[in-house]
User: What shape does this take?
Amino acid sequence: MTVTCNECGRPGDAATAPGPGESIARFTPCDTVYLDGCSGVFEERPEPSRKRASWIRYPDMDRLDRWGGVLFRATGQVAYLVGSALERRDFGDVDVRIILDDEVYDALFPAPLYHPQRAQALWSMLCEAISAWGRQETGLPIDFQFQRRTQANEEEPGAGRRHALGLGKWAQREDGEWVLR
Assistant: This one.
């Protein structure tokens, strides 16, 4: 808890805070502390809650971000951290997604009418291979998937809980072009 003036917002200190068992009504008026005529009184305010970007610790997040940069260079698409690692401390796996335009996804993973499981098999093989590679590179329980943009936006509308990976390590070459390190 912090102590601030309810009118001018000045921070209070230990002298203006109530003692144990004292009520807010007995807080010191701001003008007796600052002598400037403010008519407010000091009140307790809860600390502002800060939303975590993710529950992945820094060294692990750094490895994940570097791996996301490799995915970006390999595919030309941004990988996103999604799912429970963004929401809670006891996440089970680390969900990483590359979201493709519907046309690109359909071209990579066509579902032929005579054998619709073939496209699913290719998708599953690629996702599992990339997941295994991600687990090896990061030491995290990676669950990687390619997703169609339409389905990704239906699952997570507005992309409010997606964390882009691999975009934080840019450098400028001597010729002036910006490249991902």
